[in-house]
Amino acid sequence: MAELENPAVMPKLIAFLSSLLERVAESNDQTRRVTTQSQRVSVFHGLSRPAITIQSYLERIFKYANCSPSCFVVAYVYLDRFTHRQPSLPINSFNVHRLLITSVMVSAKFLDDLYYNNAYYAKVGGISTKEMNLLELDFLFGLGFDLNVTPNTFHAYFSYLQKEMTLLQPLSLVNVVVPPRSVITFNDDEASHQKQQLAV
Question: Does the keyword Ribosomal protein apply (predicted)?
Answer without folding.
Answer: no
